[in-house]
Task: inverse folding
């Protein structure tokens, strides 16, 4: 997928990206681990690595048609986008979109999501994503027109944008 966002590009992930992908993943768990555990830094890092590699393997094995991208700004890694453009032959599924903390709240995520929505609209397809109920990005998804279509365990909301 090519982006028309100035200085922002996507490239396929490489095996050599695993350390930065783990760092991106870990950035989403820092607050939770700081507040919810009394683990030292080594224990937190072990947990993050264990969880990242389990998630990575799951995504690779269960989203076989998906695209796994590194998000870059002027050749600097700033995040990841995992997306399946033909999920269950019904629409786009954003498996994961995460920006490193220094790149959040700069309208980059919004711009990428708007490009995904535009592409989906051109193809008359829906866009879906699972979002944890406490994820700060939930407000962004709602603002962009995503609505909750289901909920799992009171935590995971399946959000969907529709071209209608």
Result:
């Amino acid at each position: 997928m090519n982006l028309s966002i100035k200085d922002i590009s996507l490239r396929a992930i490489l095996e050599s990206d695993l350390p930065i992908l783990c760092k991106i993943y870990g950035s989403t768990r820092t607050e939770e681990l700081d507040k919810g555990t009394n683990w030292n830094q080594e224990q937190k890092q072990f947990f993050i690595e264990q969880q990242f590699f389990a998630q990575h393997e799951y995504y690779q094995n269960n989203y076989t048609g998906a695209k796994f991208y590194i998000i870059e700004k002027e050749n600097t890694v700033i995040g990841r986008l995992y997306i399946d453009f033909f999920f269950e032959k019904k629409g786009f599924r954003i498996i994961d979109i995460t920006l490193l903390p220094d790149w959040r709240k700069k309208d980059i995520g919004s711009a990428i999501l708007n490009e995904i929505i535009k592409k989906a609209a051109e193809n008359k397809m829906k866009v879906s994503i699972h979002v944890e109920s406490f994820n700060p990005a939930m407000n962004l998804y709602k603002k962009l027109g995503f609505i909750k279509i289901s909920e799992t365990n009171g935590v995971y909301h399946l959000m969907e944008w529709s071209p209608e």
Observations:
- The helical segments are 18-27, 30-36, 41-62, 108-122, 138-143.
